[in-house]
Amino acid sequence: MRIASFLIASTLLGNVVWAQHGVERDNGWYPDYIQLGFGGVVSDKAEDVPGGTIDFDIGYDVALALGWVMPLSERFDINFEFETYYQYFTVDEEDLLAIPSAVNDDASALAFFINVLPQWYFTPQFSVFGGAGFGWAKDVSYDAWDSGNLNQVDDDGYAVQGRLGFDYNLGGNYDFLLGYRYVLIEPVDVENTITNQTDEIDVGQHVFELGFRWGL
Fold it and tell me: Is the dihedral of CA 162, 126, 84, 77 positive or negative?
């Protein structure tokens, strides 16, 4: 009896969710949803930099997005997002010793993205999404290379990202998301003020996230 009740409830919920897709929203210019995400950041190694090849510890990220939905059919939407994204990670403690002047190991960045994310609903409640984002990063900081005779020359630049993930509708206007993103920020120049040599810190991040979406 309980199994039958569960199946009936799931079917009714699925029909409600399915009916929401492929229908034009009436929000005007207001966003269709707010989305919050957080997760772990795994950074690529920094190569050919002062200190040689430098590794990083696992960090974290936080992302907040406003989204607009363009329905194409019952199964396909395109989401347009304006996203604010923050990441923080640290230089590996052992590798930090290879940078003679380094005291602090912090690394962080704040970025703003415009994302285009097609979404495909293969059941009423389950969907997959993927796409790309383009934007600008500011307050890019690598403290380990901004010390002693090392000077971080710039702290902003373009940023790009690729996104991929799963979406599960919890019922009504609430969704749970599991996603992956690869973030790449314009290389940061580091100058040795004694030798006048300039090196680039070119590091990308693999990010694994949990997200929550509220429909408006």
Answer: positive
Instruction: Give the range of the structural domain holding residue 41, as residue numbers without chain letter.
Output: 2-215
Residues 6+ positions from 191 with CB-CB distance below 8 Å: 150, 151, 153, 197, 198
pLDDT along the chain (216 residues), means of 10: 41 44 62 97 96 97 97 95 98 94 95 98 95 97 95 95 98 95 97 93 97 96
Task: Quickly count: other Cβ atoms within 10 Å of residue 5's Cβ.
Answer: 9
107/50 Cα distance (integer angstroms): 15
Check: CB of residue 212 under 8 Å from CB of residue 35: yes
CATH of the domain at 207: 2.40.160.20
Per the structure, the count of domains in the chain is 1
